[in-house]
Amino acid sequence: MSTTDSDLQAGAEALRHGDAGKARELFARAVAAGRNDAPALLGLAHACRTLNDEAGKIAAIDRLLAAEPRNLRALILKADHLAASGDARSASSFYLAAVRAAPPPNELPPEVAPELNRAQQMCERYAAQYQSYIIEQLAAKGFDQAKSSRRFAQAVDIALGKKKIFLQEPRYFYFPELPQIQFYERSHFPWFDELERATDDIRAELLEVLKEPEAFAPYVQGDPNRPRKEEAGMLNNPAWSAFYLWKNGEPVAKNAARCPRTLQAL
Fold first, then answer.
1. Least confidently predicted of 16-20, 30-34, 179-183, 209-213
2. Who contacts 213 (Cβ-Cβ below 8 Å, separation ≥6)?
3. CA nearest 154: which of 128, 185, 125?
4. Distance between CA atoms of 90 and 126, rounded to whole angstroms?
5. DSSP character for 220?
6. How many CB atoms lie within 10 A of CB 46?
7. Backbone angles phi, psi at 14, to 5 degrees
8. I want to staple 162 with a disulfide (CB 3.0 to 4.6 A). Which of 47, 114, 157, 236 is the partner?
9. β-pairing, 250-251 with 241-242?
10. CATH class assigned to 3-132
11. Can you tell me the distance from the alpha carbon of 79 to that of 73, in angstroms, rounded to the nearest whole number?
12. pLDDT at 225
């Protein structure tokens, strides 16, 4: 065992027995001898924290993060330091970095799990505070979500993480320059009222067709001249069937004749 390994082992023992001063001395000696890794620098940071040596603790943490930017323990310790100093914005960025750097739960060391959970809680706490601050500042400038610009209100919700951005993602044919509108307001379609007035007629014709299940065909049908694709369980599945009034740009005369009021409404 090398001298630095002996110092690290002895430093860990000293910490366990409550001798933080001795631990700091041993870890500092290992670092001075060239150990620039988590066991040495985290040990030094913990010893300094026990001794209320904030400058020594953060110097060790910063050195470790320079070498290992995704080290979870170092990120959380740095966040704790910033939170204690009142720098909420910087603290939240380090807590968030720790959460994002975390491995899957089954790969997370058991002793780190509680700290990571605390980091997640701090992220949520800071996010809630930030949202409240933004809303208060906007309100002070006259913004009223119920009366102001709907588009700006949606932009605020996206910025605060309350809504996500939905973009068109067609599987087969992308038509450029369509507006990326998540939900179209009813007022844009004045003909809805007339169509809805025909609901009873449309339903009555559908009920008649439903009496003959063989009139329907699977919406997704296989082609023997193409590779088989399951299409999420819809391929040749009668549970996902269609009764076409119009198909491939032409009316389906037999079906259309059975639903004249539906076609008239459409």
1. 179-183
2. 238
3. 185
4. 11
5. B
6. 21
7. -65, -40
8. 157
9. unpaired
10. mainly alpha
11. 10
12. 82
Query: What would the pLDDT profile of 145-166 be if each residue is shown by its tens digit?
Result: 888 888 898 898 888 888 888 8
Q: Which sequence spans correspond to the domains of the chain?
A: 3-132, 188-265
* pTM for this entry: 0.61
- Which amino acid makes up residue 114? P
231's CB contacts (< 8 A; 6+ apart) are 220
d(CA 82, CA 266): 63
Distances (CA, A) of 136 to 115, 123, 148, 153: 31, 20, 15, 14
Look at phi and psi of residue 75 and say left if phi exceeds 0, alpha if psi is from -120 to 50, else beta. alpha
Amino acid in the structure at residue 20: A
Q: Of 29, 31, 68, 27, which is closest to residue 50 (Cα–Cα)?
A: 27
Report whether 70 contacts 38 (CB < 8 A): no
Structure tokens at 201: 């007629």
Q: Would you say 29 and 48 are in contact if contact means Cβ atoms under 8 Å apart? A: no
Residue type, 28: A
How many DSSP H helices and E strands does the chain contain? Answer: 12, 4
Nearest to 96 by CA among 105, 106, 104, 88: 88
Q: 248: phi > 0 → left, psi -120 to 50 → alpha, else beta; which?
A: left
Q: In Å, what is the CA distance from 53 to each residue of 10, 20, 34, 94?
A: 20, 11, 22, 21
